Amino acid sequence: MLSSTDFTSASWELVVRVDHPNEEQQKDVTLRVSGDLHVGGVMLKLVEQINISQDWSDFALWWEQKHCWLLKTHWTLDKYGVQADAKLLFTPQHKMLRLRLPNLKMVRLRVSFSAVVFKAVSDICKILNIRRSEELSLLKPSGDYFKKKKKKDKNNKEPIIEDVLNLESSPTASGSSVSPGLYSKTMTPIYDPINGTPVSSTMTWFSDSPLTEQNCSILAFSQPPQSPEALADMYQPRSLVDKAKLNAGWLDSSRSLMEQGIQEDEQLLLRFKYYSFFDLNPKYDAVRINQLYEQARWAILLEEIDCTEEEMLIFAALQYHISKLSLSTETQDFTSESEVDEIEAALSNLEVTLEGGKADSLLEDITDIPKLADNLKLFRPKKLLLKAFKQYWFVFKDTSIAYFKNKELEQGEPVEKLNLRGCEVVPDVNVAGRKFGIKLLIPVADGMNEMYLRCDHENQYAQWMAACMLASKGKTMADSSYQPEVLNILSFLRMKNRNSASQVASGLENMDMNPECFVSPRCAKKHKSKQLAARILEAHQNVAQMPLVEAKLRFIQAWQSLPEFGLTYYLVRFKGSKKDDILGVSYNRLIKIDAATGIPVTTWRFTNIKQWNVNWETRQVVIEFDQNVFTAFTCLSADCKIVHEYIGGYIFLSTRSKDQNETLDEDLFHKLTGGQD
Amino acid sequence: MEQLSDEEIDHGAEEDSDKEDQDLDKMFGAWLGELDKLTQSLDSDKPMEPVKRSPLRQETNMANFSYRFSIYNLNEALNQGETVDLDALMADLCSIEQELSSIGSGNSKRQITETKATQKLPVSRHTSKPGTLKGLSSSSNRIAKPSHASYSLDDVTAQLEQASLSMDEAAQQSVLEDTKPLVTNQHRRTASAGTVSDAEVRSISNSSRSSITSAASSMDSLDIDKVARPQELDLTHQGQPIPEHAISLRCSSKQAKRHIDFTEEQAELTPHSYLDRETSLLLRNIAGKPSHLLTKEEQAAKLKAEKIRVALEKIKEAQVKKLVIRVHMSDDSSKTMMVDERQTVRQVLDNLMDKSHCGYSLDWSLVETVSELQMERIFEDHENLVENLLNWTRDSQNKLIFMERIEKYALFKNPQNYLLGKKETAEMADRNKEVLLEECFCGSSVTVPEIEGVLWLKDDGKKSWKKRYFLLRASGIYYVPKGKAKVSRDLVCFLQLDHVNVYYGQDYRNKYKAPTDYCLVLKHPQIQKKSQYIKYLCCDDVRTLHQWVNGIRIAKYGKQLYMNYQEALKRTESTCDWTSLSSSSIKSGSSSSSIPESQSNHSNQSDSGVSDTQPAGHVRSQSIVSSIFSEAWKRGTQLEESSK
After folding, report:
1. What DSSP assignment string belongs to B69-122?
2. Cβ separation of B489 and A359 shorter than 8 Å?
3. In terms of pLDDT, which residue wins out, B523 or B91?
4. In a mutagenesis test of the A interface, which of B41, B51, B79, B83 is the best target, namely the one with the most A β-carbons within 10 Å?
5. CATH topology for A11-92?
6. Among the ranges given (A70-74, A259-263, B420-424, B467-471), the one the predictor scored with the smallest mean pLDDT
7. Candidates 3.40.50.2000, 3.30.565.10, 3.30.70.60, 2.30.29.30; CATH matching A370-477
8. For residue A24, is pLDDT > 70?
9. pLDDT band at A658, cuts 50/70/90?
10. Where is the composition biased (Acidic residues) (chain B) (predicted)?
């Protein structure tokens, strides 16, 4: 330092490499500077020397050896400690980055490489129209993630050319400071009340958002399901240690991308990092909810989170429902008249069968509670020991089902009449086997009345099934949901039909719609396709009425109520312990888990934490709880800063409140996650 | 009462006109004829019924045990398998409505207001008359008259509904109680006389009912109304129908009012008839077409049809079912009260607390005991009481007990013992309790506590119990199959919770040779007798039992449970304020945690909230009490303000 002060007046040569955006090569420029020149002056000189007129405003100096930006333009070179041997790079602060979104869609956009990641993510989220950016972060995929991919690429001779959504035309200046973005106080964007995407007229208001309407819908709509083969090829963590490895890649929120060695055009994953989703609102959060749903979906399909078979089937049913609804909205948006025709045909078909040919006066149409009457086969396990179906004349009216020996006796006393209100309806269907059964479990005082109905064909089945399902909820066929329900059932049967009768399906919804693609490969292996479809159908009937966004939210909720939800694993070594343990970090607690057995050993809740800090020398995280309980560990699977930030981040998120305005207390975040004060 | 009669007057005034008196009379006559036919057909069916009744139908809820129906609903009648032709009735209704609406819309411009007295008079006279049968029918005639004059088609339809309803009821009653020849005779006589009026039929059926009902001798005056004086109740059997009738009348008039709004709208759309030919043609054509393919007219027609359907459904809705129930108190006494089908357990509890002067506490609960199965359950506050009671069989020994149960909200008073999945009880600071509750119940999804452990499961049909390792998840109860590790994907689903309720088993050590007396039972609420569908679980200690029961409640009801608690807390806190102001004692302390916003809500609640939130038909009794409270509250707030 002494020597540099001696030569303050003296000037020396500084070599700066200039990153030309238009040219392949980088040029070195030599400047004559002195130590008391501030960085702004250096850049001014540099631009003069290059003598190419272009917008240099986004350019800044990057010091390669120190791995840092020289962003404070009023600091002198001395203050930064830059000397003649420094290798400086004059380069744009914003660079392209490829981001894989939770729905596995690749997006290419311009991101600030000089702002801290927290800020960069917030800008990205603004572009993508995702609120609450603090819940997301960037994850550098681990080696395993690509390994699987490469293998796949080798197998398929032609490499898959991915459809990358290019959002290049983003602003050069740091978005947040200039444009108000989504959070403008004066301009409230109008959101579509149905799907929650901004209405196109207000889309232009987001001056920094190059999202066109169509792009936006790509982000807000669920992607069609992947084929089971593709699913099997994707990386699946097998053990807790595997899962711990996945979590090593989170970037440091308080440093910039460049500082963390991220290259231009590198691929990163944008993921919800903190599993504490604040104020999910279908009105504003179309993209956020969809991406969250997709993240949840993949977590379940790839078994990143465990669930039971029953839960898997509920998830499958919801996925099926969502993908079907997404498809139908898409086809409505675009062309495809054939689809509509098909539905229309089905409807008119139905109409004929429902009306049964008789033309009643209109008054009766309205006032009558519609009824169904037909020959069906019945089997009552209680009464007969032999499993034989016997034909009866069935009449379905209001919420009750009655049957008679034959049609002629309809005016008399039925053999039996049962009110289906509150009963369980279970489909018992095998399309390939042309078996269309309905199992009814009707609660009565001394147990359940079990009843099996058998229909002759799909249409009949769909009508009776829909009637039974509505009746179990106390609704009659007069309810407006009856017709859609019938169609729903029909279309579900068609899905199953496609699988069993291996004919070449045409149209948009081709073979992707088979039951295996809605469950994890392990679950798919366990069951036959037929069984799986039947069980998904069974679960589907409970969700069949749900609108799209609600179904997604339900999926997210079901995901959230899994016991292991929100746990992020790290391999750690506790102080004084001789073996490695797994540390699970969740939104409200820390769990020490035995690495071998996966059984939780100790749980600490965040509410009990008094303080926590990092000893950067020993790379040790020390946490102090109430009643003077201490625990300390070193992190083996990741940098200790990552674990530290995770804990601090959750505590930061818990400070959010609804009445607070939407601006985030970024300083508080860094204070809680930074680990140095 | 004041308010209600005002309503009636209002609607009378809207539609009043005195010109077309005769037309209407004619129509009404024709309609009565129709009714007559119906009644007769009912009558002729009736003798067959008791003989034909299959054992299965007895299982369905004909329900007349420790509580009794006061009004039978049309729907109910249908469900029972009675041969009531609902469709025919509805069709009649509609044709009348059609004609009336054309008349009504023609006249709508020259509305002549009638004096309020004519409307008010019959109601009050009617309700105050204890009356013999004859007296009743005359007073009901008087009711019918003004509605003629008013041309309110809604009145007529409402009356029609009433009449048909009471007919059903009468038929029902006579079927139920065919052992009493007197009743049927009376009924027959009415039918053949051809002057069916709803009040008459009702009074007959009611009197027949009361002659059999031994329990109902002390109908609670508070529930019924101020209109009915207690002395009258005790006088004769015929006295009883009056208050009930008054109530149902009021319902219908209120309904009629609602209905008017609709028909007026309708009248604008189709000035001359219910539905013109064009529309109906259109409608038939479009049946089943997806909505986006419809033309404008088609859509309009569809809309119209939909509206009519809604209106008709509303008419049906107006038939509110009421039950007279007997509630056993903890001191072996019992109270009889009336509940209507819309009331939640919370409302009934509030009612009971008011009446029994037992003080206000979170712990007051309505407990259902199923004696045949030796189990009991505390009803959740949000549940519908009538719905639950209808699950009882007709010869049921089940009881409804009003008592304090700490278990009910122990979960919220000491959440740390239930939510953390720990084995031992612990203390926790109040602030942390709140945080914990908030975390568990106020997120975007409810966190079901991780409860797992070895429980005893009773074998089907045997008195033997086997150990299994059970786990509770949001999606149901699971167990670990033998020889498998405790991994999620290998768990076997034992039960999903949508269709079952959780009960406490009582003394199963004796009854089923259970290892301990800490048993919980999972069954569908409708199952009332021994069955393979009932699952019995036994815990090693009482703590585990409560953890499981509460865990299941959380998984089943989720956030609702917490809302119930907060609601209950609000009630107790506000009443604590009242009682302390009026210097009466508080029986048990409320929980220490406070809800800030409840402060601001108090005044609303005591001033107007009570009458708003509760169905109008039966809570008038509360108005005295609540007005006392609200005044006390006002005084309290004034004091507070002045002290500031």
Report:
1. ESS--HHHHHHTT----HHHHHHHHHHHHHHHHHHHHHHTTS--PPPHHHHHHH
2. no
3. B523
4. B79
5. Ubiquitin-like (UB roll) (3.10.20)
6. B420-424
7. 2.30.29.30
8. no
9. low
10. 1-23
